[in-house]
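<given_protein>
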Amino acid sequence: MPKDENKNNELRLRNHDEYPTPEVLEKVLGKSFDAYVAFQEALPELEIEQEWQWYTPHKAWFARGQYRWTGPRGVDKEKTIYWAHFFDGYFNVAVWFKEKNRQELFSAKVSEGTKQLICNTATFGKVPTFPVEIAVHTKEQLADIYELIKLKKKLEA
């Protein structure tokens, strides 16, 4: 496939000196920017703080969703809940789960398409984990991501 036909799959936000401001994101996301804004507006209710991180292996800015809480002994804890990657016209949200939790994900209130992703995604690493990665083009796709975030917090917090 010629490179131009695959342009939408190229990772964006690759300029280290250009912080991902709303203006930069709107230019990259185009019509999907409304979905990104809706996602951002939902994060406080989900108790998620998003922070930007320059990810050196990919030489790009990624958004990391963090869940922070105080443990039973009063110790402050935090857990990465998702990574968001940005492309021309859309963004991906990847929520990583441990392999031991895969079966529990099938009872989540997510679409059949997302359940297929859960079923078909391979595991990685010494502690087997796998991503459930959703490409977001519209606000309607966010419901599954919210459910995955809630489940990740419950299973791993």
The chain has one domain: 3-156. The helical segments are 22-29, 33-42, 102-105, 112-120, 142-156.
